[in-house]
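Late entry, written up from scratch paper. The run itself happened at the end of the previous shift, but nothing got recorded in the book at the time, so transcribing now.
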Amino acid sequence: MNIIYYHPLFNAQEWLAGIKQRLPQAEIREWQRGDERPADYALVWRPPHEMLANRRDLKAVFALGAGVDAILDQERKHPGTLPAGVPLLRLEDTGMAQQMQEYALSYVLRYFRRFDEYQALQQRQEWQPLDPHSLDDFTIGILGAGVLGQSVARKLTEFGFSVRCWSRSAKQIDGVQSFAGEAQRAAFLDGVKLVINLLPNTPETVGILNRELFAQLSTGAYLINIARGAHLVEADLLTALDQGQLAAATLDVFAREPLPQDHPFWRHPRVTITPHIAAITLPQQAMDQIVANIRALEAGHAPAGVVDRQRGY
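Output as recorded:
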């Protein structure tokens, strides 16, 4: 069994050693330009076109992340980047769900308890108790009801929040109100005080966080974007904040990363920035899942996390 690996940022030696420890019979190597030797499996993140394009012997391509928008975008721009008929698999959870829970909960509570406003008051040296939000008027809406969206929704219900989800197809989540499709999006948004974006990045969802969506939320609503920067129309967010339609926004992802130094988000008093760290790939858990899927494929069983290329997730 031959495995090739490519990631422009990860420590390659950690991954090569980890996979080899789990699959002693495998030959695994870091792919280099010009390497056309046989490969059964490819572990990749933003692979160069020539790495995969002509490989008809691959049994599967593993994306080293929960999102596969980057590699699918490469395929759209350079058809053939992904060999036809070869399944593409993404990571499912591998420790990301808990990280997303922690991130979302921390900022939900920050806004619910108005700690962001108290921080601003402290900077002005003002002692001023604020009227608290109540659970009755703090409905949370989650865009996206995949593994991560469902995990965040369940965690928030444990704190007594009224939570609703919106997704392409209907989902059943205990204690969470489910909405699906374009026909139900307006009903989903109506009355939402805080919206969390966890949608996959597809051509249909690009720019979904825009002025029309913001206008349908409760006045003074909050936004937490922990999906992709492409979902957000940045100018519309700045307008919504300046006009008071939105009270504040927490952004972990951006159209350009790192965020340029001259970007207005850096200076806006109601925007909180984190550097794409809401949920990172945990190598040990990721390798466990990848190896389990390789073993399933070798045994003729269905693997987990197969991507529908048309849907984009």
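Residues 96-273 form a domain with the Rossmann fold fold (CATH 3.40.50.720).
(Scratch paper discarded after transcription.)
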